[in-house]
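A reminder from the course coordinator: this example appears on the midterm review sheet, so study it carefully.

Given structure:
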């Protein structure tokens, strides 16, 4: 159906798989930093790739595509239909590993035991499997090698639907018999579709051809890149940069601007289209006319280039979608301007026929597969759900690319072509014309009321920009409380090892003249799966530098004060980019420890951005722009974001020491040197602490060499280890926490010291103080508050329960969050609203608060459960009615703040609460939105 690419011919047969392993993979993997080699690690790796490419061109030819499918398994479109645990099962079976062996136990539990595997350095499944196989077959010295062609042929067989598990096992057995143990390790990584190049992917593409990266980002297809760009000296022609039917390309994307509604209206010269933002999957439908059958043929590509034709159907006779749109386009027989080729840009959704609603994005594949598996004679009307395509652009028609045509022209032609739209099956997106900021505001209020994802504002005069995100299309989504807004792409700068690794991530700052520095921003420890950990450690394994042995080059890498938390650092040019989501920005004391000056609160990893590197990660300038409008401490907001630690700032006037009236004489024999504020939920400045001490008989000094009278003692107080504090400790002085004096004042006496009252002290004092408490640090004599109890519990060693708890003890999981519980209401004088008591208890136990004010809550939780059956009631108000009224109230009454609608609480199903508990962190609410 498309202009077929011509396969380049090689002058020699393809080499064996061992050529890739020993001339490329192993050389890159064993190339490590060395103080004895002046050349940078990246330069040395670039030379390895350059030599490999030159040798291939000289000895083999200009067709490297077969090898590229093995070099870049993460970009190869093949699906091997084999999961991690299926592979483990096959290997245990093939090599007859006993079921009760230690190897079997390790392999069967490898994914759920990441923390233990990290401690034993067994985080690479391929390495783990190779070790098991090697122990049973030994070194493979004499074996027939396998060629790249044969290996690809076997892998292609594994992708076929008709290939049975028994056939897969035979294929694996053949491959295992033709590879040595080192080749085996790399083959298993290919099978598991891991990244093999360790962050050098783009370098390889550029070595092959200067325009290869550009074309890859346009089409995301290895065959197109390596078949179209065979000669380094011939640049990518302009024809290669335009749309072609049958060839995948990346569509235009909308940008999210940090502007007011009035500013957005001005951006489009007060003339723009407003469309709904859809919650589906972006799909490009390529349609062409088969000259023989005179029927349309289809290809379906996702925005990343994945071919879903097998799912939606290549013609009107097959698939989950194509059979249901016959007749919706111009009649080919009656219209002289027949459609011979066309590309439509739009979104696939799932429509629920019973509830007349669009379901969340996650239901799409399930609905498509369900429809695909059903018998052809099933009645379409019997389906609860159906695939629904909303078209919003026409980018190619009858051999002509419409990239340079204005959106207005494309949209008018689209309405003519889709002459017979089928409701809830295929339709052109509706839009309204806007001219001023209030039009955007009205559309946003309507989106909130109707539970839509948001709106897209488009310039009717704009061209279509392939693989571009620019301000001609602007997406505006409701800003949600307890969310940071747009996700941010951070680069890994360091690592803190532990039972669960935490990665120190940062931003790039441009210094001009192609010079950069990288600033730490956040510590990310949540959101990682075992596979994600494995991929990161595989990419960075040989690149980590022990910070105790070698400090990172400053100011190129600026970790800030948190450098003391870092065990290893990595050169950002060699590093991995993570997509991060957070609740908010923290500009408190904790944030100031990072080089960026602030940090992200409750941040977690959404995914690894394999398509990005140090040049395309988020910049400090990007972050500053976001911070201006997203700061969690905005005082202008009607609904301010909850702070990480709800501090009480003491605001009483500070009295001059000489005029302080005495309240007690508890500290009459003590001279205090206060070196820092008291930190925590209740904060006191140095001056406030000094006033308290003087009020209660103490004296203040600013000199550690103060003369002491008989019986007087000098006490140093600080909540922070600063340079000055360390200097005094090295002189032999002990330093105590200011909280100790508050406990003394509370009990009106000097109480025995506890371990948590000490900041820095010599071993002899620490040993004495330990005798004042039990083995967990709980005082024998002094009362304890909730904060101290929490600190004590952190130090109590974990024990393995015979019967594990239903969920972990996460006392502060919902701290600072307010919840409104939406539930069915019953119009009866004899009944009150009924809800699940368990849900309420869980929220409160884990630190959350309940509220009845939707404008003061962080989340609205929809609870459809009741404790009794009230079906006999005839005037029952459904949960849909309740949530509908809440949405209307939010849409109507939400205030405008700084030119945009204020933040709104997310409306989520109660399952979100229990997912947060399961993950031990506040997870993304997107997949739990209530859609009723």
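Designed residues:
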């Amino acid at each position: 159906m498309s202009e077929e690419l011509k396969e380049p011919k090689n002058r020699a047969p393809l080499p064996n798989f061992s050529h890739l392993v020993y001339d490329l993979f192993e050389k890159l993997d064993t190339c490590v930093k060395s103080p004895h080699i002046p050349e940078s690690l990246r330069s040395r790796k670039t030379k390895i790739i350059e030599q490999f490419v030159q040798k291939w061109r000289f000895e083999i030819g200009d067709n490297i595509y077969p090898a590229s499918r093995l070099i870049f398994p993460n970009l190869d479109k093949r699906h091997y239909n084999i999961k991690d645990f299926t592979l483990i099962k096959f290997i245990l079976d093939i090599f007859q590993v006993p079921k009760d062996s230690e190897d079997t136990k390790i392999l069967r539990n490898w994914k759920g035991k990441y923390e233990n595997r990290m401690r034993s350095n067994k985080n690479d499944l391929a390495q783990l499997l190779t070790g098991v196989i090697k122990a049973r077959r030994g070194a493979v010295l004499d074996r027939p090698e396998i060629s790249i062609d044969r290996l690809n042929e076997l892998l292609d067989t594994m992708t076929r639907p008709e290939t049975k598990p028994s056939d897969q096992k035979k294929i694996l057995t053949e491959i295992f018999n033709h590879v040595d143990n080192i080749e085996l390790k790399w083959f298993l990584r290919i099978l598991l579709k891991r990244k093999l190049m360790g962050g050098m992917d783009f370098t390889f593409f550029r070595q092959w051809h200067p325009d290869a990266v550009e074309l890859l980002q346009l089409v995301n297809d290895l065959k197109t890149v390596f078949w179209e760009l065979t000669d380094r000296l011939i640049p990518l022609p302009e024809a290669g940069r335009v749309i072609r039917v049958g060839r995948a390309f990346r569509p235009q994307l909308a940008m999210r601007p940090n502007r007011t509604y009035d500013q957005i209206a001005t951006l489009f010269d007060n003339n723009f289209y407003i469309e709904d933002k859809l919650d589906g999957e972006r799909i490009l439908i390529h349609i062409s006319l088969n000259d023989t059958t005179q029927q349309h043929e289809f290809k379906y590509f996702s925005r990343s280039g994945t071919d879903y034709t097998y799912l939606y159907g290549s013609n009107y006779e097959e698939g989950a979608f194509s059979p249901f749109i016959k007749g919706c386009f111009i009649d080919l027989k009656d219209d002289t301007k027949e459609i011979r080729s066309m590309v439509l840009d739009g979104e696939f959704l799932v429509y629920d026929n019973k509830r007349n609603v669009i379901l969340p994005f996650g239901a799409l594949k399930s609905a498509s597969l369900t429809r695909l598996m059903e018998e052809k004679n099933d009645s379409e009307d019997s389906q609860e759900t159906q695939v629904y395509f909303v078209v919003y652009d026409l980018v190619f028609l009858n051999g002509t690319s419409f990239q340079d045509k204005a959106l207005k022209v494309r949209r008018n032609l689209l309405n003519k072509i889709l002459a017979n739209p089928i409701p809830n099956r295929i339709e052109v997106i509706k839009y309204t014309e806007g001219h001023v900021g209030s039009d955007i505001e009205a559309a946003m209020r309507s989106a909130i009321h109707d539970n839509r994802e948001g709106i897209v504002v488009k310039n009717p005069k704009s061209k279509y920009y392939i693989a571009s995100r620019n301000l001609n299309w602007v997406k505006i989504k409701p800003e949600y409380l307890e969310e940071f807004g747009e996700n941010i792409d951070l680069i890994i700068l360091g690592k803190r090892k532990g039972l669960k690794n935490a990665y120190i991530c940062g931003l790039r700052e441009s210094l001009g003249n192609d010079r950069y520095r990288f600033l730490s921003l956040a510590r990310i420890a949540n959101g990682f799966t075992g596979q994600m950990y494995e991929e990161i450690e595989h990419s960075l394994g040989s690149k980590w530098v022990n910070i105790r042995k070698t400090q990172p080059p400053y100011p190129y890498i600026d970790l800030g004060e948190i450098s003391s938390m870092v065990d290893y650092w990595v050169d950002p040019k060699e590093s991995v980019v993570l997509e991060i989501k957070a609740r908010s920005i923290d500009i408190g004391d904790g944030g100031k420890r990072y080089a960026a000056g602030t940090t992200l609160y409750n941040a977690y990893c959404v995914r690894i951005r394999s398509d990005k590197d140090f040049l395309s990660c988020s910049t400090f300038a990007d972050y500053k722009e976001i911070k201006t409008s997203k700061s969690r401490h905005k005082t202008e907001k009607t609904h301010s974001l909850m702070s990480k630690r709800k501090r009480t700032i003491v605001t009483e006037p500070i009295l001059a020491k000489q005029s302080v009236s005495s309240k007690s004489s508890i500290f009459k024999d003590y001279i205090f040197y206060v070196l820092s504020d008291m930190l925590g939920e209740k904060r006191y400045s140095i001056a406030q602490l000094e006033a308290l001490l003087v009020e209660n008989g103490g004296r203040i000094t600013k000199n550690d060499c103060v003369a002491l009278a008989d019986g007087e003692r000098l006490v140093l107080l600080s909540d922070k280890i600063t340079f000055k504090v360390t200097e005094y400790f090295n002189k032999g002085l002990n330093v105590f926490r200011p909280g100790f004096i508050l406990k003394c004042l509370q009990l009106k006496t000097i109480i025995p010291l506890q371990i948590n009252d000490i900041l820095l002290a010599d071993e002899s004092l620490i040993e004495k103080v330990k005798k004042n408490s039990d083995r967990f640090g709980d005082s024998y004599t002094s009362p304890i508050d909730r904060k101290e109890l929490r600190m004590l519990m952190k130090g109590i060693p974990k024990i393995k329960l015979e019967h594990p708890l239903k969920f972990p003890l996460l006392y502060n999981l919902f701290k600072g969050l307010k919840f409104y519980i939406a539930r069915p209401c019953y119009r009866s004088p004899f009944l009150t609203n009924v809800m699940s008591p368990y849900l309420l208890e869980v929220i409160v136990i884990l630190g959350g608060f309940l509220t009845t004010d939707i404008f003061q809550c962080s989340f609205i939780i929809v609870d459809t459960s009741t404790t009794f059956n009230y079906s006999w009631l005839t005037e029952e108000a459904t949960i849909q009615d309740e949530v509908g009224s809440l949405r209307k109230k939010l849409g109507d009454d939400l205030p405008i703040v700084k030119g945009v609608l204020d933040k709104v609480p997310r409306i989520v199903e109660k399952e979100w609460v229990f997912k947060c508990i399961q993950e031990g962190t506040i997870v993304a609410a997107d997949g739990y939105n209530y859609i009723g």
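The chain has 29 helices and 37 strands. The longest strand covers residues 385-397.
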